[in-house]
Amino acid sequence: MKKIIIVAVFSLSLLYINSSAQNITSSEKFGKTINVGIGIGGYSGYYGYVGHAMPVFHIDYENNITKNFTLAPFLSLYTYSNGYYRSTSCDQTLPLKYFTYHETVIPIGAKGTFYFDKLLNTGSRWDFSAAGSIGIAIINSSWTNGYDGEMNYFHSSNPLFLDAHIGTEYHINKTIGVFLDISSGVSTVGIAIH
């Protein structure tokens, strides 16, 4: 009889511990998170005509849509400046003069993210995700005073964009995590605040 009671208590304890662990992992939510990061952009997306990688600032806020899916409005920012020797007018026979081209780009849009944690059984410290983002790039460009040549020379990229992402986050504690987002647009590393 004593053995039956010990086995029953042990079995009920295991059942309770197992159900508690499942409740913790199944109730994990991924939204209500501010992600702030810096990254680099390459040759595609809303900076494709620059021709080299450049630093980009990024911020978004993830909202829960379903248990494993979030939707995040985002804003990014980069600025670019370069000097060129150009004619002072559309007449290419005139002597060349040095001009500076400056551009500020603010991509805004939405990013939908699916988390694979439950599928991969990763535990509470790690998140793994795949995402897609869509948006528009607001572009402000200017040349130095005196340039009256082709003002839209560098506007070959479409301001609309669609990017694919894969990412991971390591939770340092319940409120802070570090993330890596590898993208066909801007890849970022940063801090997640839950």
From the helix content, strand content and strand pairing, which structural class follows?
mainly beta
Order of helices and strands: HEEEEHEEEE
What general outline do the C-alpha atoms trace? elongated
- CATH class of the largest domain, named Mainly Beta
What amount of the residues lies in strands?
over 45%
Count helical runs: 2
Biggest sheet, spatial arrangement of strands: 1-2-3-4-5-6-7-8
For the terminal residues, how far apart are their CA atoms?
A: 50 Å
> How much helical structure, as a percent, in the residues?
10-25%
| Reported CATH architecture of the largest domain | Beta Barrel
Domains counted in the coordinates: how many? 2
Catalogue the unreliable spans.
5-26
What is the number of beta strands? Answer: 8
Might you state the CATH topology name of the largest domain?
A: Porin
Mean pLDDT: 79
Description:
- The protein has two helices and eight strands; from the N terminus they run H-E-E-E-E-H-E-E-E-E.
- The radius of gyration is 25 Å and the shape is elongated.
- With 194 residues, it is mainly beta.
- The longest helix has 25 residues, at 2-26.
- It has two domains: 1-29; 31-193, Porin, CATH 2.40.160.
Summarize the structure.
With 194 residues, the protein is mainly beta. The chain contains two helices and eight strands.
Secondary structure topology:
Blueprint (H helix, E strand, L loop, with lengths): L1 H25 L6 E9 L12 E13 L2 E19 L8 E20 L1 H4 L5 E18 L16 E12 L4 E8 L2 E8 L1
Antiparallel strand pairs: 1-2, 1-8, 2-3, 3-4, 4-5, 5-6, 6-7, 7-8
